[in-house]
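[User] Could I get a sequence and structure tokens?

[Assistant]
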Amino acid sequence: MILLRHELGDVLREKRLQQGRTLREVSADAKVSLGYLSEVERGEKEASSELLASICEALDLPLSQTLSLVSQRIADAEGIAVPVPLPIAAHRAVVSAA
């Protein structure tokens, strides 16, 4: 079974390690406890939107890019070659026109 929290944790850990940063450094920058960040990375805890935004900011990683990477991982696990793009630009145009 594919769990969003596992895929999200893997993406966050991979990005942190690519930057050569420790859990302690990122947790301090994100103002999140070291233990909680570790649990999020291991997929044991589901991060709130506020917490996720804080972690992404600490990693200098846009939330949209994080979610896109997670989406790609899930699509790969489901055997889908390319994730179905969400009509975000079209939705924004409709909302702006209203």
